[in-house]
Structure formats: C-alpha cells, structure tokens
Write a structure and sequence with these properties.
alpha/beta; Rossmann fold; 8-stranded mixed sheet; two-stranded antiparallel ribbon; 9 helices; 10 strands; S-formylglutathione hydrolase FrmB
Length: 284
C-alpha cells in the first residue's frame, strides 16, 4: 500500500491544492504463486468535515488498512470550510473541483478505473453534505455515495440567527458560504433536495446512497429526515444508526461499514509486513 501526498495547481480554484492518496501496491507473491495482472483501481473520493483538511481521514481512522484489504484507491482532498460548492464571487469552484477536475486529474496521474460503477464519493459532516450534493450533481461520474453525519445546511433557515454557539450554525456563515439569499440558494443545485427533484424530472440515474448518523449526534434528526425523504421519492438509500456522537470513533466504525457496503473485492493474498512469517517454516 502506498500513501502519497500530492500538490498540484487547480484551474477551478486557481491555486495549488494538496491531497492524500492511498494506492494499493502489489504484495510480494506467496511461494508458488504468480503475480496477477493489476486492473484499474476502484476509487473512493473522501471528503473531510468543517475545520478539517486532507489529513483528517488518514489520521482519524483506519482507512489505510481497510483500503488495502479491499484493493481500493482513496483520494482525500482539502475543501477548506467551503462546503464543496461553487462560489463564483471568490473563484471558489469547489463543486466543480470535486466533481470534475479532481476526478480527471487523479485518473491521469494514477491507474484508476473510469467506470461509473467503480467511482465512489463519501464524506463526514460538511463532507457528508458535499458527498451528497456532488454525488447527485455529478451522478454520471459517481455510482455510489456515502454520507456520514451529514450537515444539511438548508434545513431550518427560518430559525437561523447570530446567537448560535458554533459558528457554522450562524446565519452569517451560511450566507458567506451559499450567498446572501439563502432561500434562493435552497432552490438551486446547492441543495440535495433540489437535485433529487431535478434528477427525477429529467429521468436521471441515481447513485446508490449510504447514510449513517450517531444516535447522540445533534444532526441525527436532519439525517433521519433526509433518509425518509429519499425513500419517499423512491431513491435507493441504505440508512444506519448506532450509538455515537459527532466524533472519530463513530466515523472510524462507519467507514469500515461503508467499504463493506461498496461493491469491492478482497485483494489477493500476498506477503507484506503484516504477514511476513506466514507459511515460513522457522524450524531448523
């Protein structure tokens, strides 16, 4: 397994951007085995939450170990606090970056499958919202979406004030991210509900969707409501709850469930540092 840090100039963001990439690497073949041909890797684009960056998933979970077991490439970009949407005023086209440029760039850099059914997007909190929004908007690219503890920014607009203890709960933060007219933004492709409606009107093919939220998470009711909405619209969704709050222990458990849910193959057996003694006769 190779873990790479990559920096490249983004045309959509007009600056150098970083990302971590987990790439399956060939294990040494077991005695008597032949090395199997390497196919293009299935790929998960994995988005961090607010206040985070491209290092979060790698250091907060065991994603590297589980990606190796599943022969999965994982791309983890930085999204700042921009919620993975496009804001032309600041030349922050984070939606286009995630849904188009990042996919195109990584496919040129690495041996990644270009098939829709092999291309996945996921995230937590703000990144869960970003995965839903961009997984739906770019549904011709992403065949599967995994949204954990998602922040649904367009719920409860009438009750937003400046009195929230947490800055992301304040109206000023939402306006800075989505524009001054939040009601208009809610009726645009920034809102996953709007995208579902438009996709149904156009007869577009939906990605498979996995959602999860902890029972002690303040975002639980919003996640339940969106899962119910998807089911009411006859959109395929797998919804999971378990004990846990808005924390890494929960996301660590859930990302393993996500990888079990995705259409992945166990990687071929081989020798690595984790099983170096397997099959070796140590007796003299």
């Amino acid at each position: 397994m190779a873990v790479l840090e990559v920096n490249f100039i983004s045309e959509t963001l007009m600056r150098t951007v970083p990302m971590h990439v987990i790439l399956p690497a060939d294990k040494l073949p077991m005695p008597g085995e032949k090395r199997k041909p390497v196919k293009p890797f299935k790929t998960l684009y994995l988005l961090h939450g607010i206040l985070g960056n491209y290092t979060d998933w790698l250091y907060g979970t065991r994603i590297q170990r589980w990606a190796e077991e599943k022969n999965l490439a994982v791309v983890m970009p930085s999204g700042d606090n921009a919620s993975y949407v496009d804001r032309a005023q600041e030349h922050n086209y984070y939606g286009q970056f995630i849904g188009e440029e990042l996919v195109d760039m990584t496919r040129k850099m690495f041996r990644l499958s270009e098939k829709r059914e092999d291309t996945f997007i996921g995230g937590l909190s703000m990144g869960g919202y970003g995965a839903l929004r961009n997984g739906l908007k770019y549904s011709e690219t992403f065949g599967y979406v995994a949204a954990l503890s998602s922040a649904f920014f367009f719920e409860h607009l009438d009750s937003l004030t400046e009195d929230g203890m947490y800055f992301a709960q304040k109206r000023s933060f939402r306006e800075a991210t989505f524009g001054k007219d939040l009601e208009a933004a809610a009726d645009s492709d920034m809102n996953p509900r709007y995208l579902v409606k438009k996709m149904k009107e156009n007869g577009d093919k939906f990605p498979e969707i996995y959602m999860a939220c902890g029972r002690q998470d303040g975002l639980l009711e919003d996640n339940r409501a969106f899962a119910r909405y998807l089911k009411a619209e006859n959109v395929s969704v797998t919804y999971d709850e378990e004990d846990g709050s808005h924390e890494w222990d929960f996301w660590d458990r859930q990302i393993k469930k996500v990888l079990d849910w995705l259409p992945l193959d166990e990687r071929q057996a081989g020798r690595s540092s984790g099983n170096v003694g397997l099959g070796i006769n140590m007796e003299k």
